[in-house]
Amino acid sequence: MYDTENGLTDRWPSQSIGDSTYNIVPSSEGDEESLSKQEEASSLRRETGWTLWLTISAITASFGCSFAFGYNIGVINSPQLIITRFYNASYIARYNQTKVSEDTLELLWSWTVSIFVAGGMLGSFASGLVSNWLGRKRAIIAIQILEIIGGIMMGLTKVCYSPELLMCGRLVVGIYGGLVCGLVPIYLAEISPKNLRGATGTLHQLALTVGILVAQVLGLKEVLGTEGGWPVLLGLAGLPALLALFIFPLCPDSPNSLLLKNNDEKGAREVLQKLRNADDVDDEMDDIRKMANQQDKVQTLSVKELLCSADLRLPLVVGVVMQLAQQLSGINAVFFYSREIFTTANIPTDTIPYVIVGTGAINVLMTLITVPMMDRSGRRPLLLWPMLVISIDFILLVIALNMLVYQAMSYVAIGAVILFIVCFAVGLGPIPFIYVAEIFSQEARGAAVTVCMFVNHSSNFVLAMSFPFIQKAMGAYTFLIFVVIVVGAAMLIFFRAPETKNRTLKEIEMDFDRMRGRRQKALHLPDNPDDMPTTRLMPAEGAREGDTRV
Predict the structure, then answer these.
(1) CA–CA distance, 305 with 223 (Å, rounded to integer)
(2) pLDDT at residue 298, as a whole number
(3) Which pLDDT does position 335 carry in this prediction?
(4) What distance in Å separates the CA atoms of residue 149 and residue 114, rounded to the nearest whole number?
(5) Residue 214 to residue 224: CA distance in whole angstroms
């Protein structure tokens, strides 16, 4: 744990040097137990499966919130041409112009896409504050109002003949999306038992991809992708939030939030019993109490304190790089501008919407497959191997897009896009959200999620605004930029990101110390035991002769 006044505390319960045993700066009597005993006790604990209320809570949080966020990502792509014509007609009628230039229409469309991401930046930055103010459950309930308002605004765009109303609606649902990305993964992590933490966390990404797919299907010209149907298509974004507003209040709150924030031990126990469908939840309650005791000794970190903390710098860098890799790997460029990509690949215009739907279906399928894999294979393999394939795949895509004079290369380009979506759905899609919630302690988690989600949406905004212009300047070679980003991120993850599957926070912190080569510094011990200053040692109570304590 990190104490803002004293630095590292309670990270290394004991260390043996030669024939002597050193207990390292215990913060309480309970911390004097050796780490090996803690691990042994933990290994004997009963693993918990999917219970009724765990399933209901996880599905409601994911498909009531994350689904709507995904829907807003995918809904804007299919009716692009129709909405652009609406913009053209609106401004011609408003300003008595004969024509709006192509550059102006392209800029307006870029703003329509990018303002959603700008809203995500604002929402992600506020997510930690909202979570600490209202608690996990009440915060998730409250933000549904934003999505409902945004959906109404977008649905009334054509009636009001106002492109600005559409952009404002996109901003509001973008703020909602940023809040969702900051609140839902933490809630899912805190209601889940350790052995299901990865699978439960993946539900956020699964619901997001399902939302994208549903938006793509409804956006087909046979459904709502028409001159008269597109306002309804956009307005339906508020429907999942409306359902969540009525259902989610029935779900249990986060036990961690109840005990650590509200000091409500009785409420936390009742919630755990409901989530685990068992009366005996003493082990998990003990874990939460230990976190509460440690939290009493260290204040909740602000964003500024987090950024200034040397001990949390490496976890923060790893978390930020994962967010950058997720967005700058090219996924939203592929989804937002998939029509242009497939047009460049000489796909017939009438066929493109169905190809887009096919890519969305593959994204859902692979994310669904990833759910059970997450707690079997671990985070690192599911990140690193797909990132390696993505790097090679984008090089193949560049070659294919530069050789479209050959008909076969069109199919190679489509295959490369599909392979990229498969790899992204396995690793970079779900894992960055899960990983950030796993590597930070309770007092730093809110600030860390705020920073990481802000970086996530900021990089997404920059990409959404710049991609069409970079693509116009560089053509197919644009994807080489993504190759450099993915390779650089993969190298940092390989050398500096520890595995978190089925591991405690203390074990993860130990790995971070080892990876940055600070083991001896963290222990306050010299490399040579003979150089140990005797003034720092005192016999441990009840210890055998030769035992000492720092």
Answers:
(1) 51
(2) 63
(3) 64
(4) 19
(5) 12
**2 and 311 in contact (C-beta within 8 Å)?**
yes
Alpha carbon distance 535, 543 (integer Å): 18
For residues 298 and 51, give the distance between their C-alpha atoms in angstroms, rounded to a whole number: 34
Conformational region of residue 116, where left means phi above 0, alpha means psi within -120 to 50, and beta covers everything else? alpha
Question: Mean per-residue pLDDT for 438-456?
Answer: 87
92-101, 117-126, 128-137, 342-351: segment of lowest average pLDDT: 342-351
Q: What average pLDDT score do residues 488-515 get?
A: 90
CA dist., res. 136 & res. 58, Å (int): 13
| Residue burial 405-424, b: 16+ Cβ < 10 Å; e: rest | eeeebbebbbebbbbbbbbb
Asked if residues 212 and 74 have their Cβ atoms less than 8 Å apart, the reply is: yes
Length of the chain: 550
Residue identified by tokens 């110390």 is 513
* Structure-block tokens of residue 50: 């999917």
Task: Provide the β-strand partners of residue 21.
Answer: 16
Per the CB < 8 A criterion, the answer to whether 211 and 147 are in contact is no
d(CA 338, CA 545): 72
- Looking at residue 14, the DSSP 8-state letter turns out to be E
**Nearest residue to 450 (alpha-carbon basis) of 98, 27, 92, 125:** 125
Instruction: Look up residue 263 and give its two tokens.
Output: 């000091």
Phi-psi region of 475 (alpha: psi -120 to 50; beta: other; left: phi over 0): left
Q: How far apart are the first and last CA of the chain?
A: 18
Give Cβ neighbours of residue 65 (< 8 Å, ≥ 6 apart).
Answer: 140, 143, 144, 180, 183, 184, 207, 240, 241, 244
Most confident of 155-164, 195-204, 408-417, 444-453: 155-164
Question: Which residues are paired to 256 by β-bridges?
Answer: none
| C-beta of residue 269 within 8 angstroms of C-beta of residue 285 | yes
φ, ψ (nearest 5 deg) of residue 302: -85, 170
In whole angstroms, what separates CA 197 from the centre of its chain?
Answer: 14
Is the predicted pLDDT of residue 489 greater than 60, yes or no?
A: yes
Query: How far apart are the C-alpha atoms of 81 and 343, rounded to whole Å?
Result: 13
* Model pLDDT, residue 159: 94
User: Whole-angstrom Cα distance, residue 190 to residue 197?
Assistant: 8
Burial call 264-293: b when 16+ CB within 10 Å, e when fewer: beebbbbbbbbbbeeeebeebbebbbebbe
pLDDT-derived band of residue 337, with 50, 70 and 90 as boundaries?
low
